Amino acid sequence: MKICISSGKGGVGKTTLSVNLAYVLAETGKKALVIDGDLGLANVDVMLRLSAKHTIQDILDMGADPREAVIHLEENLGVLPASSGTPEMVTLGPEERDILGGYLKALANAYDVTLMDTSAGIGPSVLWFNAFADEKLVIATSDPTSLTDAYALIKVLNNEYGLDRFRVVINLAKDSTEGLRAYQTLSGAARKFLDIDLSLLGMVPYDEEVMRSVRQQVPFVKAVPESKAARSVQELAHKILSFT
After folding, report:
1. Element containing residue 193 per DSSP (H, E)
2. Domains (ranges, CATH) in the chain?
3. pLDDT digit string, tens, across residues 48-76
4. Cα–Cα dist 122/26, whole Å
5. How far is C-alpha 36 from the geometric centre of its chain's CA atoms?
6. What Rg value do the Cα atoms of the chain yield, rounded?
7. What is the pTM of this model?
8. Are 120 and 8 in contact (CB under 8 A)?
9. Integer angstrom CA distances of residue 28 from 22, 25, 42, 87
């Protein structure tokens, strides 16, 4: 199953969630792949201190074998890196996207769950990855600008691609009350203006342990598995498994 993880606004912890979800999924015995879908400003490799020999750009430019570009972190966990500082990758044309889609579909077939971590916003590559995916996860925080931009992303995907099934994760919540209020604000707008019923996948609390792990470039589900944030991500992963 291919899951796209997006956000309207940057800085909401989307990549951190993607990486940590993948680790938990792999620990359950599922084969998990993280695709860095931020094609021009890759950061999954930075977050994990990886040294990439090949990237998605190499796959397109030189016909590199996607399987050889995957970095295996653990037995059940792989990462397909993207390139950084390559603006041309952000504006791939329809033909290039079709070619990339063929490569990624074949690669994803070798895994139980593929998480595609896109860039923030409503750029062409973000929209394409969402249309390509089986499931769409929208990450937001209680920040009004994050909720506004998340709604904008959902609106564009609905208007331009006819997508109407989105699962929401509220990240960095101060408490469950704040998180639920944020979700209700977003879901209320989607229901009122788009006639879409959003689904709350879960909430992840703000946790200083997460910030410390990010600075150390270590997944927090490994560094502090008993932290509140880690337990919340474990719950998210098990919910994902229920619809695989």
Report:
1. helix 176-194
2. 2-242 (3.40.50.300)
3. 988 878 888 888 888 778 888 899 998 89
4. 30
5. 8
6. 17
7. 0.94
8. yes
9. 10, 5, 27, 37
